[in-house]
Amino acid sequence: MHVYALIHRAAIDLALPRGVDQVLETISCGQLAAVVESGLALEPLQADDTKLLEAVLAHDRVIRELFLQTTVLPLRFTAFPDRESLLADLQTNQQTYLNTLTRLQGQAEYAVKFAARPIALEPVAPNLTGKAYFLAKKQHYQAQQRQQEQADAEFKALTAAIDHHYPVTIQPNSQQIYILAKQNSSALLEKQLSHLSSQASCWHLTVGEALPPFHFV
């Protein structure tokens, strides 16, 4: 039994999209409902990389379509062995899931991309030789190091400035962060990030579309 997301039980009348192979259904427990594809077998998918990729993309699509209609608690690509085990999990973790749904009410996830601004460094003169050449190479390397240190410091400062206003999730080894903000705040975010970009010498910031809060559950 493949589970896509959890929603409030009061929202179960929404239009359910098609899943990987079948129309979806909801299974309710208390104030919660799980959006599931009960007949999806994972074993054939796991044996075929192409089919597995298609299923993962379908999983993402379903969550996005649900998100346009109601608050969702998106789940990773996963499954429960049967209906009983799913109901047991919903019963055991009911309050935790409800608290998360309440926190996410009316919220969306936005990807903020940090694009490095091109900064030209003086090249090493090709006619240099001997000590003069090695000194120029050393100075060029030191300038690169200073530039990288400045970029790292700016990245931290910009992230801290954003974190002052919005919950932030940072992706390790990535020039991208995720923030949690109201679903209709794209224009405000663009204005705020444009202001931050104007104060930065190393980075230009852009914000993506409103998405389900994948990185905040």
Describe this structure in a few short sentences.
This protein has 217 residues and is an alpha+beta fold.
Structure description:
The chain is α+β, with helices and mostly antiparallel strands and 217 residues long. The protein folds into two domains: 2-104; 107-216, 2-Layer Sandwich (Alpha-Beta Plaits), CATH 3.30.70. The protein is 42% helix and 23% strand. The protein is built from six helices and eight strands; from the N terminus they run βββααβααβαββαβ. The strands form two sheets. Strands 2-3-1-4 form a four-stranded antiparallel beta sheet, with helices on both faces. A four-stranded antiparallel beta sheet has the order 6-7-5-8, with helices on one face. β6 and β7 form a beta hairpin. It is elongated and about 75 Å long. The mean pLDDT is 88.
